[in-house]
User: Which sequence fits this backbone?
DNA sequence: TTCCTTATTAGTAATGATTACTATTATCAT
DNA sequence: ATGATAATAGTAATCATTACTAATAAGGAA
């Protein structure tokens, strides 16, 4: 695997923000530094970065995937009001699948609802 | 909301199987009873059934959404070997978001890994 | 440093799930 | 039975993601 300025820029961007971005949002952001970067390059590098466990993906009920440079185990909360995605700590117990002899490599916890601000309205 | 044979057939199908199906799989299955049902009809009814809390949707890292007629709270395990989706009980504690004043309307727990059978290989 | 191999890229086309649109049909309250 | 209108079939459009290919650039060897 070669170190390219494209991959570096994508990873730097995700690491610099404690937020969650779609491929298109990442594309737009990185284009400010590398104006002719291709969207395909963004997708390919995101896939590689996930494989290398440098970033994680967040699947919500949205039609697109979000990417997160913060890789420590945590849960996500998707606000159905403002659409914001919040991080929450994840309390890990002995999971049911591992008790059943399944190998758990990853787990995703996503809450849906209203954040404190939207809940008040 | 009117009761149509299309919506009834979709709901009956999902309820009759303890499994998870994509919109296309549901379309194919229901077409055996209603040969000229439209895929758009399937999607529209699935959306309505979710709104009425008659079914739930399962978002995985797959590009398509799966639908589940079993609505009691439970977790899903996606096997990266055989691609099967398994159900697991979900132990609910006081969630972190609710402690923070967020209104949790839904929560999704998805594990990724290898099921017992694939793990042995 | 220069050269060579080959991974990576830019640009574009293709795919595939989902949504939108519209004329027609069927549900159900009256 | 009938009329208002919600729902449908069929098709076209959208949009995220993937595939493809000729050109480029990373990095090891000379």
Assistant:
């Amino acid at each position: 695997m070669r170190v390219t300025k494209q991959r570096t820029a994508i990873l730097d961007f995700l690491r610099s923000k404690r937020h969650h971005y779609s491929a298109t949002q990442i594309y737009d952001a990185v284009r400010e530094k590398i104006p002719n970067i291709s969207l395909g390059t963004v997708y390919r590098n995101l896939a590689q970065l996930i494989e290398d466990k440098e970033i994680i993906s967040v699947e919500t009920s949205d039609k697109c995937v979000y990417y997160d440079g913060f890789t420590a185990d945590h849960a996500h909360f998707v606000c159905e009001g403002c659409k914001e995605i919040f991080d929450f700590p994840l309390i890990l117990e002995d999971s049911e699948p591992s008790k059943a002899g399944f190998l758990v490599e990853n787990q995703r916890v996503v809450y849906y609802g209203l954040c404190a601000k939207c809940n008040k309205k």
Notes: Residues 2-4, 22-24, 39-40, 43-44, 63-65 of chain B lie near DNA strand C (CB under 10 Å from a C1'). DSSP finds five helices and six strands in chain B. The domain at 5-68 of chain B is CATH 1.10.10.10 (Arc Repressor Mutant, subunit A).
